[in-house]
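FAQ: What does a ligand-bound record look like?

Like this one, built around NAP:
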Amino acid sequence: MATTVENQVAAGAKVLQSYLGGKWQAGAEQGAPLMNPTTGDIVARASSKGLDLRAALAYSRNVGGPELRKLSYAQRAGLLGKIADTLAARRDDWFEIARKNSGNTKADAAIDVDGSIGTLKYFAKIGGKLGEAHMLRDGSPMRLAKDPNFQGLHVGVPLDGVAVHINAFNFPAWGLWEKAAVSLLAGVPVFSKPATATAWLAQEMVGAVIDAGVLPAGALSILCGSPNDLLDHLQLGDVVAFTGSADTGEGVRQHANVRRQNIRVNIEADSLNAALLGPDAQPGSAEFNFFVREVVREMISKTGQKCTAIRRVLVPAGQAEAAVEAIAAGLRAIVVGDPANAMVSMGPVVHMAQRKSVEEGITKLRTQADVVYTPENFAPLDADLARGAFVPPTLLRVRDGANVELIHEVEVFGPVATVVPYRDPQDAFALARRGRGSLTASVFSSDIAFLAEAGAALGTTHGRIMLIDPSIGDSHTGHGIVLPSCMHGGPGHAGGGEELGGLHGLWFYHQRVAMQGAGTTLSELAGRAADPRAE
Ligand code: NAP
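The answer part, i.e. the structure of the complex:
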């Protein structure tokens, strides 16, 4: 995508343009720096100053929307498959950018990049099953009155606005495509706003898809840099899908225009996720070992910068010592450093400000918890600690989880978790619920009745719960991995959102209408609509 990569402001530093109104546009200043978190070098800059966002949104709405909705669900699903193929052809480039701008190891980049391609392919497949329809139906016509001919049917009509997707820094690729896949399948044009710190990958990917000519004009736009007055120009039919911190999410929800116009908003925010070791688990047992492995994996995966990462490690009080020792042993084997070195298992956090935030978070937690593991003489491999945003993996422990607040409230967005002993199952469930609404919890036990009890007890405060007995210890996809077929989102603190969940996710981009009329009319309507539950 020559238009964006040629424009250098310094050796190796690109100016990221935005793709708005069907053309690449530059902001009116050099803009904010994007860093290589391993070296501290500037790799790109992004600015949205002076861009006409009202006109850009109108173009998406008035050109992209009608073009997309001329197509059937199956045709739009076909477009998703083509996007996936376009992205898959440049996988190595995406890994390189993820390393340079996000400090990702190959394993970290795979979660983001392969996760995107997999999600697009999944929606291409299940979307194809909706066939040539142009709207959805929920169930079948039902009788509404004494006269059996007066009937009702719920249908979903694709929204005729634009989908504004605001994403967090930690998943520049997946955040973009998991939202875009569902929105494009629904027939609603995408206006993506990546987090500035890591916008390079999102911008290059959008560039590749635009260059491939896969999508109709106006179907995909990207705004690089600050959101400026973006939300001021939203109107009926538009939606906002936001992923980021709870504070920013609250600001989006409370934005005057969003409130005034009742703009539909989905919020995916931060979360104090828990992993729970069952009371039956003895040190050395299969469930104990699977639990410890998962806690270590979650702490270091993407350097702990996953909204779904395990922050609170709930263990029976009698096993707390053994759990700490086993997790610390796992962490001791982690090599932190430049992700270009294949020996490295954990890279830096995204930039120096994030490193400072993690360090401050640890200091805060230490007022109520003890550090039980952090490497001695921490020195990242092939990197300078003074210039790189490196943080050591850090395990803390509280003596009494019920009488401390911070571990249930402060999300330290880095390789940090706290062991919390519990007395009995009711105590464990109460502690997990102290997160005041979380994205995910996982429970490890060989006792199937306990797993079922835990699922029911945690259900009201969690969006996703993994119930792991040893039979699936090696085959599950991971506590922190979001699957396109399962719902993503959690209540309360986690934002109260719902994304993905297979075709269920389409409803966010449709107006649900209760149609009432004669049986023949409703049968005619039902015949034109696809039932997403008939997958
Ligand atoms: P953030 O600071 O809240 O920013 C998120 C996005 O909001 C960025 O694109 C940001 O743009 C934009 N933004 C900032 N101010 C805005 C405003 N006034 N109006 C509209 N948009 C605005 O979050 P982050 O630091 O990028 O990401 C880390 C957080 O995201 C963590 O707390 C993590 O738990 C959470 N997260 C949640 C999920 C989930 O699915 N639940 C997934 C990933 C991350 P700029 O970058 O240009 O400021």
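Follow-up question: can I read anything off the structure? Yes, for example: The two ends are 37 Å apart (CA to CA).
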